[in-house]
């Protein structure tokens, strides 16, 4: 090999190494902190990730801030929950960002629901005009650890498509997350095993996937329909049902008014339990696995208490 060729190839190598080392992380924006947590698990230091909504906000009704448009403007990838969870606030922000990649169908728009197991898919035609915010099936699907795993896998594939050189890195991080999630899932299932079939009432239809994964049974909702505030007639029927079935627990998401749940509790003797459906809903639920840790601990402590005479 000629000396000049050697120098040229050495220079090319140096440039390649320098190029890799200084490669800017993929800038990811997610709609929720649950998605941000999973993206961080898989992306590690090859991504920067930020969520638009906070975990203590109702993800159906997030106040759109001008700063959201700026974040979307400079993002490489937008990850959404989909199933119309964000359709009340996200579409105008995407349009205003004028980021071509992030428009639905664009290479930087990623719907995490596509590989998830979706429950409550309507069998008849319902529309948002009827007030039901779950017209495309239940969008709170991340509350099943099995779906967390599916979402993580889909995100791994998506990130590897953006920077193929880091595919091995993302695959290794997925394997590590999968291992920790699987062992945690066994722990959660064991903790809740003796409460299988326990009937609960929830405020919003947030917990379909959660109760399906852990064997609880939701028999009623404080909301007459997802997204519709409680009405006196519905509340009265619900109270009769709670008494008839001897239900002890009313799960309420942190962003709902406690007035109606407390009134129901006073009348029926049930306990109101504020349980966060999202990472960031309370400070202990600081990542995807800790969200389940927190909720499973809260539930088992309360269920154990309600069993004692
Ligand atoms: Zn909902």
Which series of helices and strands comes N to C? HEHEHEHEHHEHEHEHEH
Number of strands: 8
Q: Helix tally?
A: 10
How much β-strand is present in the residues? 5-15%
Overall shape: globular
Q: What is the share of helical residues?
A: 40-55%
Can you list the ligands bound to this structure?
zinc ion
N- and C-termini, Cα separation: 87 Å
**Rg over CA atoms:** 23 Å
Strand count, sense and closure of the main sheet?
A: 4 strands, parallel
Mean pLDDT: 92
**Structural class designation:** alpha/beta
Strand order, largest beta sheet? 2-1-3-4
Which spans have pLDDT < 50 for at least 5 consecutive residues? 14-21
Structure description:
This protein is of the alpha/beta class. It has helices spanning 3-21, 33-43, 66-73, 90-97, 145-162, 167-192, 208-214, 232-245, 259-268, 288-307; strands spanning 26-30, 47-51, 77-80, 109-111, 199-202, 217-221, 249-252, 271-274. Strands 2-1-3-4 form a 4-stranded parallel β-sheet, covered by helices on one side. A 4-stranded parallel β-sheet has the order 6-5-7-8, with helices on both faces. α3 crosses α4 (90-97). Zinc ion binds next to loops.
């Amino acid at each position: 090999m000629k000396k000049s060729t050697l120098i040229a190839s050495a220079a090319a190598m140096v440039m390649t190494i320098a190029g890799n080392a200084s490669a800017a992380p993929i800038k990811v924006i997610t709609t929720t902190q649950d998605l941000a947590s999973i993206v961080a698990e898989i992306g590690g230091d090859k991504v920067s990730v930020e969520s638009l909504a906070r975990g203590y906000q109702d993800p159906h009704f997030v106040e759109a801030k001008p700063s959201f448009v700026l974040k979307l403007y400079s993002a490489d990838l937008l990850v959404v929950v989909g199933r119309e969870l964000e359709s009340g606030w996200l579409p105008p922000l995407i349009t205003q960002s004028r980021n071509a990649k992030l428009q639905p169908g664009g290479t930087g728009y990623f719907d995490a629901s596509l590989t998830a197991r979706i429950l409550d898919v309507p069998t008849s035609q319902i529309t948002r005009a009827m007030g039901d915010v779950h017209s495309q099936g239940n969008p709170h699907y991340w509350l099943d650890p099995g779906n967390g795993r599916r979402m993580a896998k889909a995100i791994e594939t998506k990130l590897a498509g953006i920077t193929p050189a880091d595919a091995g890195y993302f695959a290794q991080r997925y394997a590590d997350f999968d291992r920790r999630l699987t062992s945690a899932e066994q722990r959660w299932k064991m903790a809740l095993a003796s409460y299988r079939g326990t009937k609960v009432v929830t405020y919003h239809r947030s917990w379909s996937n959660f109760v399906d994964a852990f064997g609880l049974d939701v028999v009623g909702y404080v909301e007459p329909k997802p997204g519709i505030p409680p009405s006196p007639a519905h509340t009265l029927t619900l109270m009769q049902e709670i008494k008839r079935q001897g239900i002890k627990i009313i799960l309420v998401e942190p962003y709902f008014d406690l007035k109606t749940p407390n009134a129901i509790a006073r009348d029926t003797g049930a306990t109101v339990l504020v349980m966060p459906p999202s990472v960031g809903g309370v400070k202990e639920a600081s990542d995807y696995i800790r969200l389940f840790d927190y909720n499973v601990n809260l539930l088992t402590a309360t269920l154990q208490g309600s069993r004692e005479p």
